[in-house]
């Protein structure tokens, strides 16, 4: 038996709206993308709670070897700590202890804008006909789509390296 009452239609409309909103939120909240390159033979991974130090403008005073590089990209600028956590997790997987040459910045991944005007065929200043009645399209309100990017070189200490040094 098919019913056609407004309560059923209203319930279906709410369910469809909820599904669309949920899908949009999932699409916008994409996880960080982590990539890495190994320079040396594989090392056993570190434990999930092992500390990973970040050296941006200095280097550790103790002996170490460079074992790889790591890069993470994401859109969540307000939660940069989530990107750094993803980066640290990859360093542990590689068997590293720290990151040197740590950098953080933005990269433009696309642009979008609003076009004003319309098509124009010919150029009246050069003797051509003015067809279309509108000046050429002009981009206004251009916005860049950016991602936060963190990079660094993964190192493994070859001896003891106290954090207080």
Give a verbal description of the structure.
Helix content is 23%, strand content 35%. With 165 residues, it is an alpha+beta fold. It has one domain (30-157). The chain is elongated and about 75 Å long. 12% of the residues are buried. The model is unreliable at 20-27 (pLDDT under 50).
Largest sheet: 5 strands, mixed
Q: Kindly estimate the percentage of residues that lie in beta strands according to DSSP.
A: 35-45%
* Number of E-state strands: 5
Radius of gyration: 27 Å
What pattern of helices and strands is seen along the backbone? HEEEHEE
Q: Helix fraction?
A: 10-25%
Shape, per Cα inertia axes? elongated
Number of helical segments with 4 or more residues: 2
Class by alpha and beta content: alpha+beta
The total number of structural domains is 1
Task: Provide a brief overview of the structure.
This protein has 2 helices and 5 strands. It has 165 residues and is of the alpha+beta class.
